[in-house]
Design brief:
Strand order of the largest sheet: 6-5-17-16-15
Order of helices and strands: EEHEHHEHEEHHEEHHHEEHEEEEHEEEHH
Largest sheet: 5 strands, antiparallel
Number of helices: 13
CATH class: Alpha Beta
CATH architecture: 3-Layer(aba) Sandwich
Number of strands: 17
Shape: elongated
Strand content: 5-15%
CATH superfamily: DD-peptidase/beta-lactamase superfamily
Structural class: alpha+beta
Distance between the termini: 127 Å
Radius of gyration: 38 Å
Length: 525
């Protein structure tokens, strides 16, 4: 089921820093972490982590209660819920006084829901006004407004209760790929006083942000086999993501630039980042000035945004705006049309989403016989923060934990939600398609200005015949290496330009014999 990709689940990138509240014109909420220094790779989280007893026990009990409640609800209501004909007092514990807000299954929210989740209640009210033009004063109230509107939320009762069983300073959020519906949302407000997964409390994402950086390279035409320079060795984009090579991922970000990476992230569901001074940068407004590409993985982002980013990957590259309201119904149980619908856009090519799924592909040991993808990360400041963000095709879940709750990482929290969803909704296993093979195997990231690559690099050792590695080139000989004349035992031949030597004088006396001739009459010759 893992398409041949070794398990990468639980890998973490660690970073050391400190918490603080630096100055800035727009600040994130309380407990926003400060950050300084660089990222570094860290040991992988072991597979097959057993859920903490408290989480497992509570989730198990609530799960069975939820299933039993759901069965009873179906028996009592029949097809009424399918048609949207909801009773005044659906099966929740809140009764008619809280029937203005209902879970996705028709159950009333608990009476103290808004009190326990004030930040979530504010987000729901804001969406209600923005999309429907309604205020809480126009909603159903048994005594004051029996003809008021009722709001069916996207929250799933079983998943919300499982999320609320999360202990300590930890939060989880689940987003449905393709629709953007938020199926559960818990930000540990009771334990910390702040919604830890919303925009008011962003956290440094480290490795979980690598999917955005990798998506930027893939959208620009690179393949997952493109090469980049790391701290210790050159690595492919696939290896950089799968093994959490921070330096290589920073090099990718620097290659394409801050604007390109954040534009890609914005399309995938990222709404804001918090800079090194603590100022919130609104991505919709293009507030990118002064941000450093190498620090994109440490600028804090919200947990709900990262759940939305991974939902975009899980849906094949289609981003749907996150939302909490499924529909509004009037006193006749008729659906009220919203003034503004849920925005849906294609953010990534299908091949890009396919390759990102492959890069984060986990092993079936973590979720038996089921493909999923995900990335983990740690941040070490005054306290340790842990992330795990991942998805199956039907659900994207982002889990974040701080302090003592971060001891086992974000994976157990993520598993608690995924396991509950699979059991309650009977999600069928879907096999992820594997790498697409799209894009060009680029080497720009490891070549010098002349296009040459170090012959001793990992790339050249793997590709010795490449011209960029010097294949086919003959080194010019030095003077000391010049060939010398061959030795011979034969005497050298004389130079033809040399003059003939004069004969040596003879030691014999000159001859006195007078030459004679037939035509000469001596002494007149």
């Amino acid at each position: 089921m893992n398409n041949g990709n070794p398990s990468r689940v639980g890998r973490r990138r660690r970073r050391t820093g400190s918490h603080g509240d630096p100055s800035g014109h727009r600040r994130a909420g309380a407990r926003t972490p400060g950050y300084s220094g660089k990222r570094r790779a860290a040991p992988a989280l072991p597979l097959g982590i057993t859920l903490p007893g408290k989480i497992g026990d509570v989730a198990f009990t609530k799960l069975h209660l939820a299933v039993a409640g759901a069965v009873s609800l179906v028996v009592v209501l029949g097809v009424a819920i399918v048609l949207g004909d909801l009773p005044d007092d659906a099966s929740g514990a809140g009764g008619e006084a809280q029937a203005a807000f209902l879970y996705a299954g028709g159950q009333s929210l608990p009476a103290d829901f808004a009190e326990r989740h004030p930040a979530l209640a504010e987000q729901i009210d804001a969406e209600l006004e923005a999309r429907y033009g309604l205020t809480p004063e126009q909603l159903y109230d048994a005594a004051a407004r029996p003809d008021g509107f009722r709001v069916v939320l996207t929250l799933d009762k079983a998943l919300q209760e499982a999320a609320e069983a999360t202990p300590g300073e930890a939060g989880v959020v689940a987003v449905e790929p393709g629709t953007g519906a938020v199926r559960c949302y818990y930000g540990a407000e009771g334990a910390t006083g702040v919604d830890q997964i919303g925009p008011a409390a962003p956290h440094p994402p480290l490795s979980v942000f690598d999917m955005v950086t990798a998506a930027t390279a893939l959208e620009a035409g690179a393949s997952i086999e493109s090469w980049w320079r790391g701290d210790d060795a050159d690595v492919t984009l696939a290896a950089a993501v799968q093994d959490s090579h921070a330096a290589a991922m920073d090099a990718v970000a620097e290659q394409y630039g801050v604007e390109a990476v954040l534009d890609t992230g914005k399309g995938m569901g990222l709404t804001a980042v918090t800079d090194a001074e603590g100022a919130v940068r609104d991505l919709a407004a293009g507030e990118y000035d002064g941000l450093e590409a190498a620090d994109l993985g440490v600028y804090p982002v919200s947990v709900v945004d990262m759940a939305s980013v991974y939902a975009t990957i899980a849906s094949g590259g289609v981003h749907a705006e996150t939302h909490f309201i499924d529909r509004v119904i009037d006193t006749d149980d008729a659906t009220v049309e919203p003034g503004e619908g849920v925005r849906t856009d294609r953010a990534l090519a299908e091949t890009t989403a396919q390759d990102l799924q492959f890069l984060g592909l986990g092993a079936s040991e973590a979720i038996e016989d089921r493909d999923y993808f995900g990335v983990a990360a740690d941040y070490h400041g005054t306290t340790t923060q842990s992330w795990f963000v991942g998805a199956i095709p039907q659900l994207s879940v982002a889990a974040w934990a701080d302090g003592a709750a971060a001891g086992d990482g974000g994976l157990p929290l993520w598993r608690n939600l995924i396991d509950t969803a699979i059991e309650v909704h009977d999600y069928e296993p879907e096999q992820l398609p594997g790498a697409s093979g799209a894009g060009e195997d680029l080497t720009d990231g490891i070549a010098d200005d002349d296009g040459r690559i170090d012959p001793g690099s990992e790339y050249c050792r793997a590709n010795p015949d490449e011209d960029a590695c010097g294949a086919g080139e003959s080194p010019s000989p030095t003077e000391s290496e010049s060939p010398s004349a061959p030795e011979t035992s034969e005497a050298p031949e004389p130079d033809p330009t040399t003059e003939e030597p004069e004969p040596e004088p003879s030691s014999e006396p000159p001859s006195t014999e007078v030459p004679t001739t037939e035509d000469c009459d001596w002494p007149f010759c």
